[in-house]
Design brief:
single chain, 3 helices, mainly alpha, 116 residues
């Protein structure tokens, strides 16, 4: 076990990377990566001693990439749904305008024929 407290937080890092909140996971990952970087810089271990830590960083980065990909897919689906809702809303509003214009034309026609 290492004496550096910065390198003893892997469980916390893994929990933060698996967080249900994307924002919390990203912020946790950034903080954890900062701790690990400081720990590596301050560490007196050899490269072979850092290999497990580097492997864990790879796992955390892979999990972050999966979370970002899921967020991108979710955002794309939301955008498509909002575009469809907007399109149908424009159709309904256009129909409403046509009905209103038709009513106006009918009223003008009635008024013009009563005057003559």
């Amino acid at each position: 076990m290492n004496n550096e407290p910065e390198l003893q937080n892997w469980e916390e890092i893994e929990l933060l990377s698996k967080s249900s909140s994307d924002t919390e996971g990203k912020l946790g990952f950034i903080k954890a990566l900062h701790k690990v970087t400081i720990g590596i810089v301050n560490s007196k271990n050899s490269i072979s001693g850092l290999t497990p830590f580097i492997a864990r960083i790879g796992i955390v980065i892979e999990q972050l990439n999966k979370n970002l990909q899921k967020a991108d897919e979710s955002s794309t689906k939301l955008t498509q749904a909002l575009n469809r809702i907007t399109f149908y809303g424009v159709i309904v509003a256009g129909f409403g305008v046509l009905v209103a214009v038709g009513g106006l034309i009918l009223e003008i026609y009635k008024i013009c024929h009563k005057i003559q």
